[in-house]
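Title: Comparing notes on inverse folding

I've been comparing how different people in this forum approach sequence design from structure. To keep things fair, I'm posting one structure and asking everyone to reply with a full sequence. Here's the target:
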C-alpha cells in the first residue's frame, strides 16, 4: 500500500543524494525545506465530494502501519470518552482521577490528558470549572524537564455559570466538527452543554483527510483529500490567525507553533512535514521527526557540548541541537524559574529556533505588556539566553561553573565557529 515514493525517508534520501535536483544535503550549506511531496490529486476539496465519515477503525483495517503510529500520537488522544473509567492512554500514566467530589460516572469526556494537562466535561456536556465546582478542576501531568509534579490546578476560576463545551473549544480536538446553529440546534449525544456535534472524538484520520466513504471502494482513484501545507496544521496549531506569537507571564502560549515557525528566519517558509512525519508522535515515536537537524545542517555539530548530558533529579537529557534551538519557552500546564541566574523553563518547546546572544533577559523578548513575542524588521523572533543556556547552567544544577547572561552571551556568540 504505502509505496516507496510515498515514504518521507525515500524523499530525504532522494534530496540528500541530489536525485531531485535540489542537491539538498551538500556540505556547503543547509538544504531547502521545500521537499517535493508526492503529487496528490485532491488538495482542494476537504469534503471529498460530500462523502460521509467512516471512522478511523475503517481506515486502520487497510492502513495498519499508519494506524499503529497514529495511536501513539497526541492527535489520537485529544478527546476521550470516559465510561465510568479513566481513559487508557498508551505510553503515559495519564489521568488517575477526576476532580475532587466527582466520580468517573460524572465525567462524559476528558479533554487531552496525554501530554501536559486534562480538562473534564460532565454528563450534561459542560466543562467542570473551578468557578462553578469550587475545586481545582484541571489535571496537570508531571513534566520532569521543568521539575513540575502531577496534580490538580485551578481551571476557569472566575466562571460564574456552567461553561458549555462549545465549537470554539472542541473544533481542534475532534473529527468532523459542526458549528452550533441556533436556528436548527444540534447537541452531541443530546448533551445540552455540547452545542454542535462531531463525528469522532480526537484528531483522527478524517480530521486531516476529510470524510472517506467514497475511498475504500476505489482507492486507486487516489482522490482523497491531502494537504501538507503548514497553514493546514496551523489551523489548529495557532491561537489566532493574526500571525502574532501570543504570550503571558513571561512564557509563550502552548499552541503557537505556526506563528513561531513563520518568525523563525531560515525555516519561515517550511511546511511542518519538512521535519515531521504527520502520523508519528514527536514525543513517543523515534521516527516522529522524520528529518533531523543535521540531515540539512551537516556542517554544524554540538561543539563543546559533544557527549554532554544534562541531569536534573530523575530527568536526563543528552545534549542535542534541540536542547538550545528549541528551548522550553512555551507553557501549557506549568513552568519554573530556577536559580540565582533565573533560568526559565516552560513545558512546550518553541519553534523559533533563532537565539538572541545579547546579555538580555526574557523581558526583552516580549512586548512591554508581555502579551506577544517581539519581532525584528524582517518579522523574525529570537529566544533570550535565560531560556537557552540558563535552563541548564544555573546555580541549582551543581555544574562545575556558573554562567550569567553576560558570560553565556560571550560564549554563545559564534558558538559554532569551531564546528
Ligand atoms: C485553534 C485550535 C484549538 C482550540 C480552539 C482549542 N484547542 Fe486545546 N489544544 C490545541 C492544540 C494545538 C494543543 C496542543 C498544543 C501543544 O502541544 O503545544 C491543545 C492542547 C490542549 C490540552 C492539552 C492536551 C494534553 O494532552 O496535554 C487541553 C487540555 C486543551 N487543549 C483543552 C482545550 C479547551 C478546554 C479548549 C476550549 C476552551 C481548547 N482546548 C480549544 C488546539 C486547540
Ligand atoms: C494531522 C493530520 C493527519 C492525520 C490525523 C492523518 N494524516 Fe494521513 N497524511 C497527512 C499528511 C499531511 C499527509 C501527506 C504526507 C506527505 O506528503 O509527506 C498524509 C498522507 C497520508 C497517506 C499517503 C502517504 C503515506 O504515508 O502512505 C496515507 C495513506 C494516509 N495519510 C493515511 C492516514 C490514516 C489511515 C490516518 C489515520 C490513522 C491518517 N492518515 C491521519 C496528515 C494526516
Ligand atoms: C479497502 C482498503 C482501504 C481502506 C478501508 C482505506 N484505504 Fe486509504 N488507501 C488504500 C490504498 C490501496 C491506497 C493507495 C492507492 C494507490 O496508490 O493506488 C490508499 C491511499 C490513501 C491515501 C493517499 C492519498 C491518495 O488518495 O493518493 C490516503 C490519504 C488514504 N488512503 C487515507 C485513508 C483514510 C483516511 C481511510 C479511512 C477513511 C482509508 N484510507 C481507508 C486502501 C484503503
Ligand atoms: C525544522 C524542523 C521542524 C519544523 C519545520 C516543525 N517542527 Fe515541530 N518539532 C520539531 C522537533 C525537532 C520537535 C521535537 C522537539 C523535542 O525533541 O521534544 C518538534 C515538536 C513539535 C511539537 C511538540 C512540542 C512540545 O514540546 O510539546 C509540536 C506540537 C509541533 N512540533 C508542531 C509543529 C507544527 C504545527 C509545525 C508547522 C507549523 C512544526 N512543528 C514544524 C521540528 C520541526
Ligand atoms: C484538527 C486540529 C489539528 C490539526 C489539523 C493538526 N493538529 Fe497537531 N495537535 C492538535 C492537538 C489538539 C494537539 C494536542 C495533542 C496533545 O496535547 O495530546 C496536537 C499535537 C500535535 C503534536 C504533539 C503531539 C505528539 O504526540 O507529538 C505534534 C507533533 C503535532 N500536533 C503536529 C501536527 C502537524 C505536523 C500537523 C499537520 C500535518 C498537525 N499537527 C495538524 C490538533 C491538530
Ligand atoms: C529541511 C531542511 C532543514 C531541517 C530539517 C532543519 N533546517 Fe535549519 N535551516 C534550513 C535552511 C534552508 C535554513 C536557512 C539557511 C540560511 O539561512 O543560511 C536554516 C536555518 C536555520 C537556523 C538559522 C535561522 C535564522 O534565520 O537565524 C537555525 C538556528 C537552524 N536552521 C537550526 C535548525 C535546527 C536546530 C534544526 C533541527 C531541529 C533544523 N535547523 C532543521 C534547513 C533545515
Ligand atoms: C549549546 C547550545 C547550542 C547547541 C547545542 C547548538 N547550537 Fe546552533 N547556535 C547556538 C547559538 C547560541 C547560535 C547563535 C550564534 C551567533 O549568533 O553567533 C547558534 C546558531 C546556529 C545556526 C545559525 C548560525 C550559523 O552558525 O549558521 C545554525 C544553522 C545552527 N546553530 C544549527 C545548529 C545545529 C544543526 C545544531 C546541532 C548539531 C546546533 N546548532 C547545536 C547554540 C547552540
Ligand atoms: C540542556 C542543557 C544545556 C544547555 C541548554 C546548555 N548547556 Fe552548556 N553544558 C551542559 C552540560 C551538561 C555541560 C557539561 C558540564 C560538566 O562538565 O559537568 C556543559 C558545558 C558547558 C561548557 C563547558 C564546556 C567544556 O568544555 O567543559 C560551556 C562553556 C557551556 N556549557 C556553555 C553553554 C552556553 C553558552 C550555552 C547556551 C548557548 C549552553 N552551554 C547551553 C548543558 C547545557
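Reply #1:
Here's my take.
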Amino acid at each position: 500500500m504505502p509505496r516507496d515514493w510515498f515514504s518521507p525517508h525515500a524523499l530525504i534520501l532522494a534530496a540528500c543524494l541530489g536525485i531531485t535536483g535540489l542537491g539538498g544535503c551538500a556540505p556547503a550549506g543547509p538544504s531547502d525545506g521545500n521537499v517535493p511531496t508526492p503529487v496528490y490529486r485532491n488538495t482542494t476539496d476537504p469534503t471529498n465530494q460530500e462523502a460521509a465519515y467512516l471512522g478511523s477503525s475503517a481506515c486502520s483495517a487497510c492502513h495498519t502501519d499508519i494506524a499503529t503510529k497514529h495511536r501513539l500520537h497526541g492527535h489520537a488522544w485529544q478527546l476521550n470518552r470516559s465510561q465510568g473509567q479513566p481513559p487508557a492512554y498508551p505510553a503515559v500514566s495519564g489521568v488517575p482521577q477526576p476532580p475532587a467530589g466527582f466520580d468517573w460516572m460524572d465525567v462524559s469526556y476528558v479533554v487531552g490528558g496525554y501530554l501536559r494537562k486534562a480538562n473534564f466535561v460532565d454528563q450534561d456536556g459542560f466543562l467542570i470549572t473551578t468557578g462553578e465546582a469550587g475545586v481545582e478542576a484541571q489535571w496537570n501531568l508531571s513534566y520532569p524537564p521543568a521539575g513540575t509534579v502531577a496534580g490538580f490546578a485551578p481551571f476557569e476560576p472566575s466562571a460564574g455559570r456552567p461553561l458549555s463545551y462549545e465549537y470554539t473549544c472542541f473544533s481542534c480536538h475532534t473529527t468532523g466538527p459542526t458549528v452550533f446553529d441556533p436556528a436548527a440546534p444540534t447537541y452531541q449525544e443530546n448533551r445540552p452543554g455540547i452545542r454542535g456535534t462531531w463525528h469522532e472524538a480526537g484528531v483522527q484520520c478524517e480530521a486531516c483527510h476529510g470524510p472517506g466513504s467514497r475511498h475504500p471502494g476505489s482507492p486507486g482513484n487516489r482522490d482523497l483529500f491531502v494537504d501538507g501545507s503548514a497553514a493546514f496544521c496551523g489551523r489548529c496549531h495557532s491561537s489566532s490567525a493574526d500571525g502574532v506569537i501570543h504570550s503571558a507571564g513571561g512564557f509563550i502560549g502552548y499552541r503557537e507553533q505556526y506563528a513561531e515557525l513563520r518568525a523563525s528566519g531560515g525555516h519561515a517558509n517550511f511546511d511542518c512535514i519538512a521535519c515531521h512525519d504527520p502520523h508519528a508522535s514527536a514525543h513517543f515515536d523515534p521516527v516522529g521527526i522524520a528529518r533531523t537537524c543535521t540531515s540539512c545542517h551537516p556542517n554544524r555539530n554540538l561543539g563543546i557540548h559533544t557527549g554532554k548530558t544534562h541531569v536534573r533529579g530523575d530527568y536526563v537529557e543528552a545534549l542535542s541541537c534541540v536542547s538550545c534551538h528549541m528551548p522550553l519557552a512555551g507553557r501549557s500546564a506549568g513552568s519554573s524559574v530556577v536559580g540565582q541566574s533565573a533560568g526559565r523553563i516552560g513545558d512546550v518547546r518553541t519553534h523559533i529556533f533563532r537565539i538572541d546572544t545579547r546579555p538580555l533577559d526574557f523581558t526583552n523578548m516580549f512586548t512591554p505588556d508581555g502579551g506577544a513575542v517581539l519581532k525584528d524588521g524582517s518579522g523574525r523572533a529570537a529566544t533570550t539566553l535565560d531560556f537557552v543556556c540558563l535552563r541548564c547552567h544555573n546555580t541549582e544544577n551543581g555544574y562545575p561553573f556558573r554562567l550569567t547572561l553576560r558570560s553565556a552571551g560571550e560564549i554563545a556568540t559564534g558558538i559554532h565557529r569551531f564546528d
